[in-house]
Amino acid sequence: MGKLVFDTTPGVETNELDEAYTTFAEEYDKYHGGSSVPQTTIAKKECMGLISPKPGVKFLDMTVGTGNATMYFFEYQDRINRNTVSTATLVDLNTNMLSIAKKRLGDTKWAKDGRIEFIKGNAEHMPEISDNSFDIYCCYLGMHNMPNRNKVLREAMRVLKPGGKIYVVEFDTGTWRIGKAIRGLLFQFLELIAGGSVQNRTMTLRIHHSGRAFPSPPAFVQEMKDAGFAMENNGYRGIMYTLGALFIGTKPTE
Ligand SMILES: C[S@@+](CC[C@H](N)C(=O)[O-])C[C@H]1O[C@@H](n2cnc3c(N)ncnc32)[C@H](O)[C@@H]1O
């Protein structure tokens, strides 16, 4: 406990983060539900607007956490598409985070209509999910937690239908030294305003640390290309005043 430098052994890193989420789960939405940092809510809405899911799609919310992205997905389907058949599968490795998502979404009309499925699982290996089964694979602020991104991206490629889209939202860690330094300061500022209300600061910092270690956007775009995704233009768009990046890839049709 209290250690901020990760062991680079993949399994160890995952366990440390899992421990952090177990401790932090109840407080997570003070950050990401928008009560301390409203920008996080604005960013999720902004992303759903950019994703603009079509009616009837099958949506996979990988690293669902407490369920925020799925909520915006269904709200979008209701409000913009007036759609009542699209479905969502919600996956997370952490029992506590997933149980908050269940509490939050398990009683909604979407769940009662059988449109929501919860799976406790690891993004690296999802035997519960068959090949070619989703139109959208969304990983919102979860990829920075993955020690083996290549395995995760390969698994995403497998479960997406041909022509299906992957959307990864991450921190934009920047490409040049001064930009990285400015971003580092901004992240610290966000930690300060949100962290004041969070009891377990050590665990929160452990999670933030893993976010800052994420590769630069062009480097991650290359990883997506290496996994076989087709990327349009430069492969990502700046979000949240360019503090974040939305990576968009397509599974080729042949
Ligand atoms: C920063 S939270 C993001 C939650 C949610 N997507 C959101 O935007 O609010 C990251 C989530 O990824 C989950 N996670 C980390 N590693 C995972 C893995 N290998 N497979 C599935 N979920 C994982 C964590 O348990 C945590 O709930």
UniProtKB/TrEMBL annotation:
The molecular function terms in GO held by this entry are: methyltransferase activity
Q: Which UniProt keywords apply?
A: Methyltransferase, S-adenosyl-L-methionine, Transferase
Question: What are the GO BP annotations of this UniProt entry?
Answer: methylation
Q: Which domain of life is it from?
A: Eukaryota
Asked whether the UniProt record includes Ribosomal protein among its keywords, one would answer no
Xref: CDD domains: AdoMet_MTases
**Name of this protein:** S-adenosyl-L-methionine-dependent methyltransferase
Organism (species): Linderina pennispora
Upper lineage is: Eukaryota, Fungi, Fungi incertae sedis, Zoopagomycota, Kickxellomycotina
